[in-house]
Amino acid sequence: MRYLPLTDADRKAMLATIGAGSIDDLFSDVPEEARLPGPVEDLPGHQPEMLVERELARLAGRNLSAGTHPFFLGCGAYRHHVPASVDHLIQRGEFLTSYTPYQPEIAQGTLQYLFEFQTQVARLFAMDVANASMYDGSTAMTEAIFMARRITRRGKAIVSCGVHPHYLRAAETLCRFTGDRLVTGVPTLCVSPPTDDMDDMIARLDSDTSAVVVQYPDIFGHVADLSPLAEAVHAKGALLIVVVTEPVALGMIRAPGEMGADIVVGEGQSLGVGLQFGGPHLGLFATRDRYVRQMPGRLCGETVDATGRRGFVLTLSTREQHIRREKATSNICTNSGLMSLAFTIHMTLLGEAGLRHLARLNHARACQTAERLQAIPGVELLTHRFFNEFAVRLPAPARQALRDMADMGVLGGVSAERLWPGEPDLRNVLILAATECVSPADIDALACALTETLGTEYAGA
Amino acid sequence: MNMLSEGRPTRPLQGADAAPLTSTGNRGLMLEEPLIFESGSAHVSGVDLEPVPPHESRLAGFERTAPIGLPGLSEGETVRHYTRLSRQNYGIDLGLFPLGSCTMKHNPRLNEKMARLPGFADIHPLQPQDTVQGALELIHRLGTWLKKLTGMPAVAMTPKAGAHGELCGMLAIRAAHEAKGDARRVVLVPESAHGTNPATAAFCGYAVESIPADSRGRVDFAALAARLGPDVAAVMITNPNTCGLFEPDLKRIADAVHAVGGFVYCDGANFNAIVGRVRPGDLGVDAMHINLHKTFSTPHGGGGPGAGPVVFSEALAPFAPLPFVVEKDGHFHLVEEETAASEGHGASFGRMAAFHGQMGMFVRALSYMMSHGADGLRQVAEDAVLNANYVLRSLEDVISAPFAASGPCMHEALFDDSFLDGTGLSTLDMAKALIDEGFHPMTMYFPLVVHGAMLVEPTETESKARLDQFIAAMRALAAAAKAGETARFTNAPHYAPRARLDETRAARTPILTFRPSPEDRLAAE
Which of A67, A190, A227, B423 has the most CB atoms around its CB within 10 Å? Predict the structure, then answer.
């Protein structure tokens, strides 16, 4: 077997050194009735590399991949072009096959890029500090809600109805067990301008509110000024948590930190990581200096070595489970190290000028797409101030329209019904994202497919 | 004719041992590298993009105008920056990485290639399910492997890492108790447990009580049995445990826990020792997470991403999280919130994260399993255990091994620091000296049940020759320690990119982001 270096002669010699008669002697602590006599049944035997490759390629071939079709899906996962050098660099064995940098003298490579990553994330969000990553955006948001509870010692978080429903579901799951209360609503039919939601949230603020959670841009792509909300939240002694699922947007629109956010979490998948069918993704987490000791996750900090040279270490680990055990701020152990490397390399390649250009290109493609769709009879644009994602209302159920478009080879967005099942008012709502990967020909294909879908199946609807 | 035969001889001069300082701080191939904030510029980019086409902006008046402070580098300088950084890291690709409880085995490159197939890497989690049948089938097939290897009837694929898997298992346990109207409050955790166990139980709202180890490094069955009662929701147990020992009483423990209405959570971090030889389902386990990045060879990546699927017993299966993949007549679909109740999964405790789990890690793990097959996986466990015992027996005469007398270990060998008594040296010193010898250190000071623990897990992908090199290095260090060669230890490492780092200073005055000094800021203005 190609991954196992021991020969039978080695095994024999090693058993002799150990003083064991057979390998079975080494498993003598296992109760007899639990010892399997041979390989686990009903599973295939070992295979050469070529055959494994052939079978997995067959499975991969049964999926419609984004790069080969006009593609307009977003809602928390965005398709961006990743420069070739990103994937080359993250596959260097010294990064790929290293461990959490607990031995900093021989892990400065990981530690320095984490320090750079933390700085990039903090600056992108216009916050003071960021951690070395979380699992993904949804789990980062849940951790932020718990962090706000620890800081304010209050148990109620108000969540905007513009937050990704999967994020909300994930938070609800944990809050049911931790005793945190979440207050939220369902978006109304017209996908109300976000200010309405904000007024509603401000009205619900009380002395038990730990935080208000808003997504920016929100799930429908709305870009709202969060400053008035931040002011109202702070006036009640609560914190403003901002969720960013599309970090490329911050190359163009005002940063959450500029509008008074206290904690900013996000999904970093857009830069360097790719779609990956939803994972592994990259949780981003940033806050103000004064809250750093309540922050979950690993942190990398600057220090010096015994000879006075600058170096980096994991620090403030007294917050973490391996030291604090049941008193830790979070049970998180592994983070998304390699994904944070992909993110930071992509960001370094872009630089500020590149990021701003990329953001403008995204916005332009989304504007062009929206204009084309608006021209289709019966299609109504619901998001007016957006970055690269927006919602439209169709004259027919969006889910069926998506299936029909997929049959024509166009992946035309996400139906709101997929995210809010059983909400009849949202059944006709379609959410689309257009990134730099979208070409003018893709926009044509989308418009044609949608026109045809609506025209043939729902004529007169 | 080459230069060496023409030019001056390159033979080292006698007595040329004192290395001079260099003006750059570099030492030949050991290269110093500045931060991107020191070398890059906001005006440089390593990416060429299409021109922005004419369009009517929808963001008028909302643009970000202040500088963001993100430096860029050209592509070549970017490649060089990260290549230089990478050379300051130790990885499995460089050598033995005997980090106990972490299972640092070879990461096959076929896995990397497969995970990058566009049909897996470039698909969106919310695509119509008819367009991702191959991806759903892969998740389903990996789940089937995990169920068969563990002898458990159900599996949750969405947890994103081991600790997230623990959370999944404990939430299912709490949901199961609540479904019966049973408000149990206590979770028992052996003192040798990994820190995530008590952290997870506390996170789920449980009071954590510690169970001592016996003199043989196993859970003290009598102490555990004495504590069991109607208030105990679950016992969290690691098997093999963090001392590298199999818990022979696990079945007995499980029976006792079940008798009082509790559940058994097994931490599967050490599954590599028993895969293909023992099925946890046969030992009465109700839930167990599996670290795909340990047993099933997906890369650790400098601290993630991991993946922590959880297998469940019949009793806990109804509470498994959403979404999950089911097969019907050769068609695969996701059970999500929309149809969970109508498909008979209304008891699920809900969603743990957006989307369907760590797909990229699933592809790698399945690629590994298919390569090994059921026969190869059994061999994995046998060779992992053989290698660990070989290290244990090759070192126990010079390095104290607290439980060696009680019999064989499993996949890792535990040593303590009593062999250093009187030398003035510590486990930390041993670890740092091992760096100078060209090895990654073992796990230090864990588990907590022995003093100055050193936990060595070689894994099955090390050859006998590699183990012999490691053993020789450890024996040499033990001899040097006993001979009083303390300078070799206390200033170690001497030959790493950095000497020992001041962790106290890092924690006292945290510098967590790059902030230019006031002089730099003035200069920039």
Answer: B423
Total count of residues recorded for chain A: 461
Question: Which residue type, as a one-letter code, is found at position B89?
Answer: N
Per-residue model confidence as pLDDT tens digits over A12-25: 999 999 999 999 99
B12 or A285: which leads in pLDDT? A285
Contacts 24+ apart (CB under 8 A), B227-232: B227/B188, B228/B188, B228/B256, B228/B257, B228/B259, B228/B260, B228/B262, B229/B260, B230/B184, B230/B260, B230/B261, B231/B184, B231/B185, B231/B186, B232/B184, B232/B186, B232/B187, B232/B188, B232/B257, B232/B260, B232/B262
Closest CA to A75 of A435, A324, A441: A435
Q: Do B499 and A306 touch (CB under 8 A)?
A: yes
Q: Prior bond to B323 cis, omega within 30?
A: yes
Interface subset of A 78-137, CB within 8 angstroms of B: 79, 83, 85, 87-101, 103-110, 112-113, 115-116, 118-120, 122-124, 126, 128-130, 132-133, 135-137
User: So where are chain B's domains?
Assistant: 110-120+127-367
Contact predicate B91/B97, CB 8 Å:
yes
State whether the Cα torsion B156-B157-B162-B165 is positive or negative: negative
pLDDT exceeds cutoff 50 at A446: yes
Residues A244 and A258: their CA atoms lie apart, in Å, by 14
Q: Chain B within 8 Å of A449 (Cβ-Cβ)?
A: no
Contacts of B63 in chain A (CB under 8 A): 252-254
Residue B334, min C-alpha distance to chain A (Å): 12
Q: How confident is the model at residue A456 (pLDDT cuts 50, 70, 90)?
A: low
Residue B208 β-bridge partners: B187
B183 pLDDT higher than 90:
no
Rounded Cα distance, B514 and B512, in Å: 7
Q: What is the pLDDT of residues A2-57, one digit of tens each?
A: 999 999 999 999 999 999 999 999 999 999 999 999 999 999 999 999 999 999 99
- B394:A17 CB<8 A: yes
- B357 by Cβ neighbours in 10 Å (0-12 / 13-18 / 19+) ranks as buried
Average pLDDT over residues A383-412: 96
In the CATH hierarchy, which fold is given to the domain comprising B110-120+127-367?
Answer: Aspartate Aminotransferase; domain 2 (3.40.640)
Helix (H, G, I), strand (E, B) or coil at A214: strand
Q: What is the 8-class DSSP label of residue B283?
A: G
pLDDT in tens, B307-338: 999 999 999 999 999 999 999 999 999 999 88
| Tens-digit pLDDT profile for residues B257-316 | 999 999 999 999 999 999 999 999 999 999 999 999 999 999 999 999 999 999 999 999
Please report the pLDDT score of residue B417 as a whole number: 97
Name the residue among B70, B370, B407 with its Cβ closest to that of A55.
Answer: B370
CB-CB neighbors (< 8 A) of B503 in chain A: 104, 303, 313, 315
Beta bridge mates, B414: B455
Strand B263-267 with A129-130, pairing: unpaired
- State if pTM tops 0.90: yes
The pLDDT tens digits for A185-214 are: 766 655 555 556 888 899 999 999 999 999
Residues 180-209 of A with CB under 8 A from B: none
What are the tokens at A76? 């928390």
Report helix, strand or coil for B500: coil
Its ipTM equals 0.96
**From CA B440, how far away is CA A122, in angstroms rounded?**
32
How far is residue B194's CA from residue B269's CA, in Å, rounded to a whole number?
A: 9
Please tell me the predicted confidence (pLDDT) of residue B193: 85
CA angle (B106, B473, B294) in 5-degree steps: 25
Chain-chain contact of B349 with A173 (C-beta, under 8 angstroms): yes
Give me the numbers of helices (H) and strands (E) for chain A, helices first please.
15, 13
